[in-house]
Design brief:
The chain is an alpha/beta fold and about 240 residues long. The protein has five helices and 14 strands. Strand 5, helix 3 (about 95) and strand 6 form a beta-alpha-beta unit. It is globular and about 50 Å long. The structure holds zinc ion.
């Protein structure tokens, strides 16, 4: 599998990461767009023809993870004149996003509601979902193919762990919005320390941190995560691709 970061800015788009949460996961001929944060559709188009997309996962309705679904809808429906693109999302996402299109998604997407413990399949990639601890109905997602596993935490506070999917993932992409010294109450997100601790507890082989609050120094977040994880940590930056 290959993971390409499309956006990694925490909660709002700002330098250095600029675009909000979005990832392209590929294996074989399968292309999945995971989270449609603002700015990520344009970045996705730099990596694959959008017509080659096989499906979408939206982990929760918060705009920094979802709003670029509007652009995909317009392109898929009117530009490409395609329909029935699989879209996996937890309950409540569709109704929240209805306002983007006055409730008329037409037949652009096949909306597939997912919840804690659900297993799905899209082409060559298997998907599993776990409800995280975040105010919106949010799922983390595990993507696996050819014996390799990656976990994307989406948004969560420290009560949830990637170990919910079992230990030993090849890659954990963990949100790390805050740093220990600047964890804003209420605690709706991981700190970089939380990301490191949780990934270590889950025996992750590699850790990448993302969704960093733009006012923070990401290099300091990496150091904090590395100290807790006990190994090197990768910083998610747009257009970074890694093999899983
Ligand atoms: Zn959120």
């Amino acid at each position: 599998m290959e993971l390409t970061v499309l956006g990694s800015s925490g909660s709002y788009g700002a330098p250095p990461a600029s675009t909000c949460s979005g990832y392209l996961v590929r294996h074989g001929s399968t292309n999945i767009w995971v989270d449609c944060g603002n700015g990520t559709l344009a970045n996705l188009a730099r990596h694959i023809p959008i017509a080659d997309l096989d499906g979408v996962v939206i982990t929760h309705h918060h705009p920094d993870h979802s709003v670029d679904i509007y652009g995909l809808h317009v392109l898929w429906r009117y530009g490409l004149q395609r329909e029935h693109l699989p879209l996996f999302a937890p309950a409540g996402v569709r109704s929240k996003l209805d306002a983007l299109v006055d409730g008329d998604w037409g037949t652009t997407f096949d909306w597939i509601e997912v919840a804690d413990g659900d297993k799905e399949h899209l082409g060559d990639i298997a998907l599993r979902f776990s409800r995280t601890t975040h105010p919106a109905n949010t799922v983390a997602v595990e993507l696996s193919a050819a014996g390799r596993r990656m976990i994307y935490t989406s948004d969560t506070c420290s009560e949830w762990s990637p170990a919910e999917f079992g230990t030993g993932a090849d890659l954990v992409v963990a949100e790390a919005t805050y740093q220990r010294a600047v964890a804003h109450p209420p605690h709706l997100h991981y700190t970089a320390h939380d990301a490191g601790v949780r990934a270590r507890e889950a025996n992750a082989k590699r850790l990448m941190i993302t969704h960093i609050w733009p006012m923070l120094d990401p290099a300091a977040s990496v150091l904090e995560a590395e100290e807790a994880f006990g190994d090197r940590v990768t910083l998610a930056t747009p257009h970074l691709s890694v093999h899983v």
